[in-house]
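Researcher: Let's run the pair from yesterday's discussion. Sequence first, then tokens, for each.
Model: Starting with the first of the pair.
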Amino acid sequence: MNASKQNSITKVIGASSLGTLIEWYDFYIFGSLATIIGKQLFPSDAGASALINTLAIFAAGFIVRPFGALVFGRLGDLIGRKYTFLLTLVLMGGSTFLIGLIPSYASIGYAAPILVLILRLIQGLALGGEYGGAATYVAEHAPANRRGFFTSWIQTTATLGLFLSLGVIVLTKSSLGAEAFSDWGWRIPFLISIVLVIVSIYIRVSMHESPQFTKLKSEGKISANPLKESFRNRANFKMVLLALFGATMGQGVIWYTGQFYAQSFLENACKLDFNESRYILIIAIALATPFFIVFGSWSDKVGRKWIMMAGMFLGIVSYRPIYQYFLDHSDYTKATVLSSAAPVQKSELVKDTKDSLYTVTIAKTLANGASYNEVTTTKKFADDTKTPEVTTIQQDKKLASNTFWIFVGLVFYQILLVTMVYGPIAAFLVELFPTKIRYTSMSLPYHIGNGVFGGLVPFIATLIASFPGSTPLSGLWYPIGIASLCLIIGVFYLSNKIDENVAD
């Protein structure tokens, strides 16, 4: 490849990747702040249902992604890749900015979660068209023998979007303090995204259309009905189904378990300190992200299939031991307490009742250097005949130094599996479908598999774990089951052959 072509593909990757990074940043800030946002969108006495309802709103954005894939995929095959995923960026970025402006439940009642839900649906529709456009755009510029390498750069941006979101959240919270951040500071990560969107729009406007689409258009061979050709053509529809059930479905649950559910589990099940859980994820992401390129490039040499299947298999067999370790080593009930701070007491009336709530918080430090807050809550009823309800929990846990780094290693391992299934996926999907219907055909299985099956992992896993008789590990059966089904289908029915010519 000569220097001019190298510069061209570099610009293409940069323009595509920056937009995709922003798209994922927008999604991640909502997922990462679900606990705080839930308290803003729902009544103060909603309890655990506030988090579940917020995760449901978050999940709604993923459910509509396949519809976005149909709408914007069709546009991409009709009018071009460039302008379609420019439009998706505007819709996504605008919705994110507006979420940061929505008043709380205290101000406008249930209109708050309804408005956020509407904006999340717009986000989901937009992302349904973003990834297919970016992947197709890069793949159609890339040389045949390096398609996995070049498209894998797009894959890094999803993780970098998470990394950026966590960094912004941690810096904002550290600057404002926990109380101000929970009250209004959580809006800042949403609002500043508009700057990134403007920069990305500027870059994308200056780019040229895909050469393969341009050639197709000049020859008058653009599909008149991409949806019909994608799904009513038997051979093509078979490829759509194989892509979904043999690859993207498993890729999706591995992705969201390793990056989303891991963080949610550490914060909600293990009760780690807010910053502690995010430091673990930030470090693990920073160490694992280069492996997207490694596995993408490797797939150019050995094929895409077996790398993705290996990632799924390793997730299936290792998730439960990993998460059991998280639970066991964040349980301080039998640990030796080295010192205890003076109790901090707080009292308040229960909303809309005459009952009183008394909270006593004691900061404790363990002999191994770990620490936590022991919070005892006593609910006293106005009716003296009722026995007061007393609950004691451990929260805001900080790990001992050696345990912290083991946790980092275990999260790193999970993200490494993500790089195995996600690094080669763009090249794999592009090579399955002809140019004139590629945007439509690859977008739908990707967004059903990644967006619906994968995106629902935090919500479904958390919901399953909340059922009576469930354990904190019960939620893992969902990603394990989906990945197992996908692994079986992929092993027997997917081909490991690399299609050198995608200009058809």
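Model: Moving on to the second of the pair.
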Amino acid sequence: MIMYNLHEMFYKVLKLKNKRKEIVMKDKTVRTRFAPSPTGFMHIGNLRTALFEYLIAKANNGTFVLRIEDTDKERFVPGAIDVIYDTLKQVGIEHDEGPDVGGDYGPYIQSERKNCYLDYAKKLIDNDKAYYCFCTKERLESLHENGNEFSGYDRHCRNLTKAEIEDLLNAGTPYVIRQKVPTSGKTSFLDSVYGEISVNNEEIEDQILIKTDGYPTYNFANVIDDHLMDITHVVRGSEYLSSTPKYNLLYEAFDWTPPVYVHLPLIMGKNPDGTTSKLSKRHGATSFNDLVNDGYLPQAVINYIALLGWCPKDNREIFSLEDLEKVFSVDGIVKSPSIFDYDKLTWFNGEYIRNLSLEKFLEVSRPYFKTVLDEEKFDFNKVASILQQRVTKLTQIPDMVKFFAKLPDYDKDLFVNKKSKTNLENVPGILSKTIETLQELESWNHDTIHDALIGLAEKLNLKNGTVMWPVRIAVSGMSVTPGGAIEILDILGKDESLKRLEIGLRKL
């Protein structure tokens, strides 16, 4: 009981700390940033980070900043910046400041800010918070080969004399600048999701701040840029919890106030053996672009990933981006990892597809129609109208409608259906009478076809389904179709419909 009370008290203290931090931030405009590296496509994890940064800003009437961190020239992928722009545009996340829209804190591309980072690194050197490191690549590699007790850099250059440093610099010896991390004590910080985190300083490596090419490392540039851009909240994955003390030691070294940290739970994928592991390509599509190409709507993707690590106060699941802006709160972010469930995403996608206007559904489905259907021969509006309620992924469309373009080869046994009471004995007569009836139609549309077939069923003293089933099989060659016999006949047109009915009759 005592232990429980102590546990409870601890979290009460954390809550109070959080409140105090929130009060401090209330005096400032909330400013968040999404700072991707242009190294390829937008991963789901990156997109979730962007979304949560955006929602935190909007929920607090703040500012959402887009900053491109392109200092890693080896991993830079041409065209990747455009992918970032396009992805954010597709999902409706609009940045208030950024390379393409400007702002008071630019430039917003890291490589264009290169000159300022070295100056800040030298300030740290002057204050004995950083140092020049002249170790060669070969020496660094040998550290691991020789079984260095400390997993990182052994701090070989940390205590070089001023004379030694001057000689090496004058000789033009390549160098990096490293952070001088305290070798004793702890560094702690308060995270909005995980509470108080402490790391022993002896476990923290003297990380590189400036590389040999003069460019800053990702970690160092982040701190400098976040401070200069007045960023108040930093959102990133929980895998960076252990490295956050490095950031805070830099803030401390400059005597700057660190931002509010919001670390998000990992996104996991299901393995074939039932276990889970961090989401990767082996689990399926993991980039936004891959998911869109796989037939998912951007709005559905955004809705789904918003719920990966965030729980609304009620059991509601469907949220537009505008809805999320109104209800999102950091308090709803959970600590436990989230499982990326493709079946659940597909359910979301189906819901979104069904709620589109017919006009909008036709817009997004037309490219898929065109892969198998000639728009001059088929009314895409009619095709869309029978398809919309049956599609869960846009990529399903070609297979679902290709029978319109070409009648597939099918077995006559498809005409047999117990529920519809059709068999190989009565179907020939039904198809024969159907052909006679439809041939007499002067006007070919949904209503005239409907009236003719319903009238035929009544005339033959048969249930409607007993007539409709063999007709649908004959004109589609499939047991499962979007739309029924009447809709298919209407779309195919009179000549093609009668032709297919004759083919069906000859099979019997």
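Researcher: Give me one sentence on the second I can quote.
Model: The two ends are 81 Å apart (CA to CA).
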